[in-house]
Amino acid sequence: MAWNEPGNKNPWDQQGPPDLEEVFRKFRRKFGGGGNNSGGGGDGGGLPKGLIAIVAGIGLVVWLFTGFYIVQPGERGVVLQFGKYLATTGEGPHWHVPAPFQTVEKVNVDGIRNVTDRQVMLTQDENIVDLELGVQYRVSDPRAYLFNTRSPDQTLSHGLKSALREVVGKSSMDFILTAGREEVAERTKLLLQDTLDSYDTGLVVTEVNIKDAQPPDPVQGAFADAIKAREDEQRLINEAEAYANEVVPVARGEAARMLAEANAYQTRVVESASGDASRFDQLRSEYELAPEITRDRMYLETMTEVLGNASKVMIDVDSGAPLLYLPLDQIINRGGRTLDAPPNLPSSNNTGSRGGSMGAPRSPSSRDGRDSLRERGRR
What we know:
- The protein is of the alpha+beta class and 379 residues long.
- It folds into five domains: 23-63, no CATH class; 66-108, no CATH class; 113-215, Band 7 domain (Tetrahydropterin Synthase, Chain A, 2-Layer Sandwich), CATH 3.30.479; 227-289; 304-378, no CATH class.
- It has helices at 12-15, 20-30, 49-65, 142-147, 152-169, 173-177, 181-199, 220-289, 291-307, 328-336, 367-378, and strands at residues 68-71, 75-81, 84-89, 92-95, 102-108, 113-122, 128-139, 203-214.
- Helix 5 crosses helix 7 (181-199) and helix 8 (220-289) crosses helix 9.
């Protein structure tokens, strides 16, 4: 049996939906509204004026409250009035006339931004080099960054390619791959900054780094061989310089030693010649004073020098010495090498006494000895 047949209750009588019209009618009575419908005799009319004022006041407060904004550290707030630049605010809480009259654009001026670009370029010596470049930059002027160019970050990317091509086109490949990487990066940074300043983009470049620089893949083997040959050349040059640094000082020292010896020999010869000349002059003076004595003395000195190392013993048979002592050991040694005589033996250059040993003829030191020799010579 259906629930809507006679005798059955409506299941919605106990928990049916509320009558919206009745609820709305009670709401209007509560806030002072009322009136009858011209057609149905019910309450009619619009919203109460008090309710409209309250809703309008709440909406105005909410709208004004949306004008508050906070600029974080490292940011700048750019205030726009009807889309036109009005002011720049620093970090902290601020308020502006809410939209649609004024709006705020927040720009991070302390954060470092990065862009990486990889290009294959032609060098000055008509070689091809593959470069990967990394650029770090930040915003220096928020107003210029937002209004002077449509896309300042893209402008920086295009300017980087242009600057890099210009610098690489004026450099050789060896310079880029070896010692010139830092210089290429610095020149690229300066040229890129000049381009950004000319467009007034409000960006400043903080760092430019060459992350990778190498020849193209098809010719890397040939370039590796060339680099190895260059390294071998440099190694040989360093070894030659080390050898030169070792040999040249030794040769210079040897030359200095030989020069010093030559100077010493020259000094010795000159001094010896000067001494011989002085001695000759002194002998000549003595000879002029006593020719015979000087001649005998020179004769005896010469014979002493000549016979001093001889292994012969001359004996004066006229002396009649009963006992002779011959230092045979000294005579034998003198024949091979010269040795100093022991302190207890008479020197071989001295003659013995009449009863003692006899050696080589000695040079008389007294006038009587010289006279006896002269007498012996005349006999």
